[in-house]
Write a structure and sequence with these properties.
The chain contains no helices and twelve strands. By secondary structure, the chain is mainly β. The protein has one domain. The strands form three sheets. It has a six-stranded antiparallel β-sheet, with no helix packed on it. Strands 4-5-8-9 form a four-stranded antiparallel β-sheet, with no helix packed on it. It is globular, with a radius of gyration of 15 Å.
Length: about 110
């Protein structure tokens, strides 16, 4: 049986420990000094890290990865904070399927926050 890796959830964001980062990644710029993991389309609230010891990367498609070199805190205006230990993580936003009368128009979308 495969051991369960560390997982953290804050609303519609899942953060899972990973063994390494993809080689084809690019660092995401900070937004007003914050590392923004996800931003709400409806409220404008953000899942964010203020600490300097975190770097967010984008991989292929919409894959996101987080490198944390010392303990950091993830904040959001509507959720409890999460203390995240040093490590490598994949950041996954929850999606939902929106069926349409015609399968042609059906699609996956991120959960609106």
């Amino acid at each position: 049986m495969r051991p369960v890796r560390e997982q953290y959830r804050q609303g519609d964001v899942l953060i899972m420990a990973v063994d390494g980062l993809p080689t084809d990644r690019a660092a995401v710029s900070r937004d007003q000094g914050r590392v923004v993991l996800a931003e709400g389309e409806v409220t404008g609230h953000a899942h964010a890290i203020l600490d300097r010891d975190a770097v967010l990367y984008e991989g292929d498609g919409d894959e996101r990865f987080l490198e944390v070199s010392s303990p950091v805190t993830i904040t959001h205006e509507e959720h409890d904070t999460i203390d995240l230990p040093p490590g490598l993580y994949q950041v996954i936003r929850q999606r939902e399927y929106t069926p349409k009368p015609s399968n042609r128009d059906a699609r996956w979308r991120y959960v609106a926050d």
